[in-house]
Structures are given as C-alpha cells and as structure tokens.
Amino acid sequence: MMRSVSVIASPLRRIGPVTVCQGSRRGFSNSQNLQATWGFIGLGRMGFPMARNLRAKLPSHDVLFIQDVNKNATKKFLEENPEGVRIADNVREVAEKSETIITVLPEPHHVAGVYKQMIEPPSLLRNGFSAKERLFIDCSTIDPMTSRSVADAAHSSGQGKFIDAPMSGGVVGAQAGTLTFMIGAPDEIVDRATETLSMMGRRVLHLGDQGSGLHGKLANNYLLALNNIATAEAMNMGIQWGLDPKALASMINISTGKCWPSEVNNPVPGVVEGSPACRGYEGGFGVALANKDLKLAIQACKEHGIKTTLGDHAKIIYDEVEAAEDCKGRDFSVVYRYIGGKE
Ligand code: NAD
C-alpha cells in the first residue's frame, strides 16, 4: 500500500510516489492542551540527550516522568534538568502518570519486559490516572515480531496505541535534535506522534502501519552493512593495485559504486576529513550496533521466508570484527582494518 512520508517543518511536496508533508511544529509553548504529562524510559546514549531535547521543548508546566534501571542516569538527568522532571519509582508509574510515553531500550527482551510491566493490569485509564488513551512510542531498534506482539498486547488492553519509531542519526543526531524517525503507525496517530518526535528530531517518515518503521530501518541497515564491507574491499583492492586512495574514492563517488560508506564514512584514513577512520575508528556507528541490526534484518527475513544471499556471510565477518582486539568497540568502517587495509 502506498504511504505518505511526513517530514517536519515545511510545506507539502511530492517526491515520486511519496508524499512528503512538512507541517509547522506545533506551538507547544502556547498550548495548554492535553499532552501535559510525558514519560521517558531508557536514558542511555540515545535516550538521555533525546529526553533532554524533549524536556527543553515542552511547555514549562508539562511534567516529564523518567525511568531507567540505571539510577545514576535518572539522578544525573534530574540534576541537569531540575524543572518539570520527576523520577518515577518504576515503569508502571510512568505509564500511570504519563499520556505519551517514549521508550529507548537496547534489545527486544527489554522492550517486551518494560511494556508488560506498563500495561498490566489494564487499569491505566482508571483509578484516578489520566483517562486519555496512552500513546506509546518505541524508538528502540528491535525485531518487528516482538514489536508487533507488544503492539497487540497494548491495543488489546484498550489502554492506548503503540507505534514503532526507530531512528537514525546516532548519538550526534540525538544530541543535536536532528534525528530521523521511521514510524509504523495508523494514519490517525501520525500527527500526534510527529508532534512529539519533532521535539527530538528533524524528520519523521511515515512508512505504513505498525511494524513498518522497523522494516524500513532494518532494510536500510542491511544495505548499509553490506555496502560498508564492499566499500572496504573495493578501496583496499584499488590501493593494493597502486591507486591513490583519494583519487579512487573521488572516482567511485561520481560513478555507480557510490554509497554512504564510500562518500561520507569512507573506511580509509585520510580520505574523508572528520570520518571515524581519520581518528582511529573512534566514535561513529559502533560495529556491535551494525551487527545487531544486520542480525535483526536476517532474522526478520527468515521469519517471512525472504531469501537473502549475502547477509549470513556478512554476519560472520561482523562477528569476527566485533571480537577482534584491534577492532571491537569501534566504528563499523573498521572492517577495512580487519581485512588488512593499509592505514
Ligand atoms: P544504551 O544501552 O546506551 O541505553 C539503553 C538504556 O536503557 C540504558 O540506560 C539502560 O540502563 C536502560 N534500560 C535497560 N533496561 C531497562 C529497563 N528494563 N527499564 C528501564 N531502563 C532500562 O543504548 P542506546 O545506544 O541508547 O540505544 C538504544 C536503542 O536505540 C537501541 O535499540 C539501539 O539499537 C538504538 N539505536 C542506537 C543508536 C546509537 O548510535 N547508539 C542509533 C540508532 C538506534
């Protein structure tokens, strides 16, 4: 089914078959309306700066309830953002007291566990709490099947709507508030979700019903994982044949091999100024996260009987890169080092 892609902050336009709607940000500072209580669960590398941006853009009278199993994270957040922030005792309290709840958690089992605690028993809209239907926005990168089962549980409990909103842009984007969110949500929730996410990011792309955000994210990151290895190998072969690395990259980047790893995140030190490769592969998109997304994409393909030919082999490579002493914990372009590329 054809879907619209909503992007924050400019007029409607159409790109090919895709509608790109850019509406103005809602005037939260003037609105005394219903979204007055907010919840944020998971104040890690992504969640902490996202929650900070959210708090900064909310009207001062709104309240943000936060929770993380890491008590240092919630304590630090409150110290840095003392106005309008409360630490909830547990995630159930977040769900009881907040009308819009954002989760940014590491793995599928964290998401499943947190939502189970939030929605059981199904009395959130009673017992003196806000009667407004909850909007649960999960920004974690998890498998679509777990996401679907959490959505089904939330919807069948009658307490609210659950949407998947995985993101790209990394920690830098989370800090700068320039993330891109890919959302899977029914049309009637898109505006409410977009208004919320626009406080933490620059673009919200609506890809379809629940689960579509994750499918889009995983398809993209599958391609990225493969392009990254292919770029490292292509750069390595050209350099070994005696080509100048910058000349080779320039040629590729005006030719058919051009891709994000060749143009922006080139794995060869010195080719793209400021890239992780230029600083010993520090920072950037960690190899463990790249490998996690690849694993989730392969798993979701298997569940749907979709044939892939390169993914399993790429997974073996990333497993080895992740374990290699001189590669682990670094940007995924370190695969160039793993294959013996000249640095
Ligand atoms: P992180 O490990 O830094 O943060 C996760 C946080 O969740 C931690 O603070 C942890 O204590 C908390 N947490 C875990 N279990 C919890 C529970 N039961 N209740 C409350 N809090 C709990 O991870 P991250 O890098 O912030 O990534 C979060 C998600 O975003 C992941 O799914 C990741 O794949 C995705 N993502 C990360 C990046 C990135 O560059 N880091 C980019 C895009 C997407």
Characterise this structure.
By secondary structure, this protein is of the alpha/beta class. The chain has two domains: 3-209, Rossmann fold (3-Layer(aba) Sandwich), CATH 3.40.50; 216-338, Orthogonal Bundle (N-(1-d-carboxylethyl)-l-norvaline Dehydrogenase, domain 2). It is 43% helix and 15% strand. The protein is built from 13 helices and twelve strands. The chain is elongated, with a radius of gyration of 21 Å.
Q: Keywords, please?
A:
single chain, about 350 residues, alpha/beta, N-(1-d-carboxylethyl)-l-norvaline Dehydrogenase, domain 2, 2 domains, three-stranded mixed beta sheet, elongated, binds nicotinamide-adenine-dinucleotide
Any chance you could write out the topology, listing elements then pairs?
Elements (H helix, E strand, L loop, with lengths): L3 E3 L6 E3 L2 E4 L15 E5 L5 H11 L5 E5 L3 H10 L4 E3 L3 H7 L2 E4 L4 H12 L14 E5 L5 H13 L3 E5 L2 E2 L1 H7 L2 E6 L2 H11 L3 E8 L3 H29 L4 H8 L7 H4 L23 H18 L6 H13 L11 H4 L5
Helix pairs in contact: 1-6, 3-4, 4-5, 8-11, 11-12
The structure holds nicotinamide-adenine-dinucleotide.
- Looking at the structure, the CATH topology of the largest domain is Rossmann fold
Give the percentage of residues in beta strands.
Answer: 15-25%
Helix/strand/pairing category? alpha/beta
Overall mean confidence score, pLDDT: 91
Count of extended strands = 12
Name of the CATH first level of the largest domain: Alpha Beta
Rg is 21 Å
- Anisotropy-based shape: elongated
Largest sheet: 6 strands, parallel
Strand order of the largest sheet: 6-5-4-7-8-9
Ligands present:
nicotinamide-adenine-dinucleotide
Give the CA-CA distance, first to last residue. Answer: 47 Å
